[in-house]
Structure formats: C-alpha cells, structure tokens
C-alpha cells in the first residue's frame, strides 16, 4: 500500500453535526447568546454548520459557535477524528493521517487539552489522597511532539525538578468518587500550599510520610492529615494512597504512547488524561457541549 492509498476513514460530516447538536441542544435548539427557543434556521455556513437566527436577541449563531470546533480551518469530521485519536496517537501522526499542517493540528490538540482542564474542575472534600510522581519530560518532548528542528541541548541529570527535566506531578484524588487532578509543579517546596488551594476545608488528606506533606492540616482548606510510611505492611483504614498509585500507572502508560512530551505542555496532556479518567463514559460529549465563551 503506498502512502496515497493509506487513507483514514473519517466519520460522515452530517453524523458529526447531528451528534454535536444533540450534545449541545438536545431536541430543541436554544440561542447560545440569550437561551431563547425562538430560533429559526437560516441556511448553512461554509463549513456546513446549520445557521440560526434568534428572534429574541436578533443575533445569528451556528452549530459551531462557542464550541471547541469554532475558529479552526478543519472540517468537523477531521476535528472529531483528532479528538478521538489524541487519546493514543502523537499529534504528528494525526497530522499525517489527515494530510494537514502539523502546527494547525497541534494548536487544536492544545486547545482541546486546555478545555479539558476547564471542564474538569472540582474541589477536594472529605477523604482525599495526594501523592507525587516524577515524569521524564524535557525540552526533548518538544522535538518529538512539536518537532522543533533545533538540536538537543546538553542532557542534564534528572534531579526531580522542572529545570532538570523531571517535573514532579502531584496527584490528587477525591476518594468519594475517585476523581483525579494532576498538578505539574516546578518543585515540591510549596506542595502543601498547592494542594490546600483545592480543598474546601473538610479535607482529610492521606499521603505518604514524605516531609513535604508535614503539617498540611494547618493549611486552610485541609482539616486533617493521615500519613503512611511505605514500610507499613498493612493499609490501615483510610490511611493509604492506593487510588493515586492506580492513577499513576495510567499516567505512565499513557505518556509512554507519546514518546516524550514537552514539560511545557505536560499539564495540558494531563488535563486531558484526567478528563478521560474522570468521565470514561461521556468525556467526548462533555467536550462537545462545552461552551468556550465561558
Ligand atoms: Zn438569542
């Protein structure tokens, strides 16, 4: 099979629009500006999106207005394909599949990743876990993922910080529903403050015995602290970080697929991973109906 014939199968454009409309509007289209249902169809856009006229606020909008798919040069089916594939394929591969400009695809991927973080915000409450993991992610990832042509700099020994290309990631889990948030840090000096910021005041935090978590219960946002040492043979009641360790294994497996992610984009990648882990059934629908205008 030569390269020309190695074409990918894209979903039909009409099916994509139907799915987008259903996720956004349900059965009745309402105005994205004022919420009125006094809406009439008024032709289509150059991208085949249905256009609407709102009689109440006298404004036009279309299927793509205020979605993650607005303001991109791609067809909707190409963007659906990208969002599905970015779960496991490097951006360069997706760009090749679509025969599209790499930078443009990368911009879209980054926007989806950033939006994932906005969709998935939640507070820590009651019993939660925190644990740290070091991820190898340097400038090098840029060369693979952003394909910068410049030469790789002197390789530094990983010292477990952002500068040393081993950024620490704090993994926070709310035990009641297993939701996870990943925080990429410059270092772990202020880990207690970084964590406490997300607490609602009721948090009982389970961590390992690492000194960065010491006295975290004195921070606003956190109510109590259970520290376990790794030498403990048994998990005592709530005092464990097993859920974090489970999420870490997903994180490692997932990042391995990308053959190196730039540390400058690591947070965005992990936002997307968190959305998938937190909403395994409906992460795609959540992206479809998210209003990017805020
Ligand atoms: Zn309106």
Q: How would you describe what is shown here?
A:
This protein starts with 12 loop residues before the first helix and ends in a 5-residue tail after the last helix. It is 33% helix and 17% strand. β2 and β3 form a beta hairpin. Strands 6-5-4-7-8 form a five-stranded mixed β-sheet. It has a three-stranded antiparallel β-sheet with strand order 1-2-3, with no helix packed on it. It has 294 residues and is α/β, with parallel strands linked by helices.
Ligand inventory reads:
zinc ion
What is the annotated CATH architecture of the largest domain?
2-Layer Sandwich
Number of helices in the DSSP assignment: 9
Enumerate the strands of the largest sheet in spatial order, edge to edge or round the barrel.
Answer: 6-5-4-7-8
Number of domains: 2
Which geometry do the CA atoms define?
Answer: globular
Question: Quick one: CATH class of the largest domain?
Answer: Alpha Beta
Query: Can you give the mean pLDDT?
Result: 88
- Please write the string of helix (H) and strand (E) elements: HEEEHHHEHEEHEEHHH
Residues in β-strands, percent: 15-25%
Radius of gyration: 22 Å
Topology, pairings included?
Layout: H1 13-25, E1 39-44, E2 50-54, E3 59-62, H2 76-85, H3 91-98, H4 102-119, E4 127-134, H5 140-146, E5 168-174, E6 179-184, H6 191-196, E7 203-208, E8 222-228, H7 242-256, H8 266-278, H9 283-289
Parallel strand pairs: 4-7, 7-8
Antiparallel strand pairs: 1-2, 2-3, 4-5, 5-6
Bound molecules: zinc ion (ZN).
Zinc ion (ZN) binds at residues 31, 33-34, 36, 54, 56-57, 59.
